[in-house]
Structure prediction request, 122 residues.
Amino acid sequence: MIDGTEKAYELAKKYDLKVAFGEDLQNGAEIAAKQGKSLAKLKIWYEPWELLKMATSTNYQLFKQSGARDPYPGENGVIKEGALADILLVDGNPLMDVDLIADPENNFVVILKDGRIYKNTL
Prediction:
């Protein structure tokens, strides 16, 4: 996969394929904390807005195509009662500097998941 990474992303861009972002290695907080860094590395092939979309709404769209196997049934990605949405408040503009997501410890000032506040440094 490593040898084919560049070609895979070139072809995805050329044919306007929907690309989702995720890590196969989800075992532990230490690995999960590095996801932003992994996503930011893709700036070689994608604009910041494309990366943020890839990790959020495109993932949602692709999950919805899995029918009964959808791990997140119901409404997702909208901010309204009963919907599933994670909310991040970033100190800075990741559309201008996608590297902000590579360091969530310092750049994410509010993290909400499943309606629960996990971090609030405001």
Observations:
- The chain has one domain: 5-120.
- The beta strands are 87-90, 108-113, 116-120.
- Residues 5-120 form one domain.
- The first helix runs from residue 5 to 14.
